[in-house]
Amino acid sequence: MNISLEEIAARIGAQLVGDPEHRINSCSTLISADADQLSFIYDKKYLPALQQSKAGVVILSAQFAADCPAHALIVENPYLAYAKAASFIHSKAKAVGSIHPSAVMGENSRIADDCVIAANVVIGDNVHIGRGGKIGPGSVLGDDIIIGENVNIIANVTITDGCRLGDGVSLHPGCVIGSDGFGYAPAENRAWCKIPQLGVVVIGDNVDVGANTTIDCGALDNTVIGNGVKIDNLVQIAHNVEIGEHSAIAACTGIAGSTKIGKHCTLAGGVGLVGHLTVADNVHVTGMTMVTHSIKQAGAYSSGTPFQSNSAWLKNAVRFKQLDALTKKINKLIKTNKENDGAR
Asked: Does the 157-301 domain belong in CATH 3.30.559.70?
């Protein structure tokens, strides 16, 4: 899109410093951008890059305005303003509704006229897809699925029978919605008997699910992902998990079954949660943390140890094994000292 600075300023609510007729056609970094491109700065560590930038316009806060050699769009939250600007600058023209000849369509499905069904898509029976839907190549949709409006299923996505997606959902390549949960009962001779997984996955509005992420269906009740939730790549969400509105989950996180996560929570990369926990609203869990108990109060939580040299880590690992014995010795010394003080 080729767009004037005047229009960009109006759409993101920015104060424009510069030529309102100057036009932008794309976005880039401060170092790489040229006169036809927009960039942004939100942290003072990028100040040297700003001072050398040849960008056509930079989104920034007032504190950096004096250091900007380009046109400027001044806002309170540059990161958010950039996200909004990049979304419409790089928006694509709306595709005309079409169904590729190689797509396999089931019976009694209702697909809006303006939907785009790409090559090698398989759609089961009794599927409903709302207006503006895009089903990317190689994707497989089971039976009895309900999909809202403006849903973007990018490529090679699998959605199993009965799942429901709200409006504005994006599913990235390789993600699986509604796979069986890990449910088995101990049987005779130390074998395992599979427990039927009878629930589905219910996803709210404006949810993004990253590449190769798996969300399991419920065992009896449903797995529920609230409105506005953002899920990164390679995340495992087990059966009957519930995630509250506008929570965000980073890559390689694993959430065990029947865990309930509140609203506006963030789970950083590599976090693990054991099953049947409850996490309060506004909880922030830092990277590689293992959560083994319910979290009842908002706040930031961490576990594990930061990295260090291998030699130091080996020494500390030995000390960790000795903690129990050391604690007992210290408690014994404290008790002895108190007895000696009392005898004086």
From this structure: no
At residue 6, φ and ψ (nearest 5 deg) are -60, -45
DSSP 116: E
The answer to whether 38 touches 85, Cβ cutoff 8 Å, is yes
User: CA-to-CA distance for 250 and 233, rounded, in angstroms?
Assistant: 7
pLDDT in tens, 188-226: 989 999 999 999 999 999 999 999 999 999 999 999 999
The Cα 311–Cα 327 span in angstroms is: 24
Tell me the pairing of strands 214-216 and 223-225. Answer: unpaired
Q: What is the domain partition of the chain in residue ranges? A: 3-89, 157-301, 311-343
Nearest to 113 by CA among 127, 132, 138: 132
Residue 260 vs residues 84, 132, 280: alpha-carbon distances, Å = 31, 32, 9
Q: Which two tokens stand for residue 42?
A: 């939100």
8 A C-beta contact, residue 183 and residue 195: yes
**Common-topology check for domains 3-89 and 157-301:** no
Q: In angstroms, rounded to a whole number, what is the distance separating the alpha carbons of residues 181 and 261? A: 18
What is the CATH number assigned to the segment(s) 3-89? Answer: 3.40.1390.10
Number of helical H runs and strand E runs in the chain? 5, 39
CB 148 within 8 A of CB 165: yes
Q: 129 and 152 in contact (C-beta within 8 Å)?
A: no
Residue range 89-108, pLDDT digits in tens? 998 877 789 999 999 999 99
Predicted structure pTM score: 0.89
DSSP reduced 3-state for 7: helix
Is the CB of residue 161 less than 8 Å from the CB of residue 124?
yes
117-167: pLDDT as tens digits: 999 999 999 999 999 999 999 999 999 999 999 999 999 999 999 999 999
Structure-block tokens of residue 262: 């509140």
Collapsing DSSP states into helix, strand and coil, what is residue 302?
A: coil
State how far the Cα of 119 lies from the Cα of 157, in Å rounded to an integer.
Answer: 13
- The answer to whether the Cα torsion of 273, 274, 275, 281 is positive or negative is negative
Residues labelled catalytic: 239
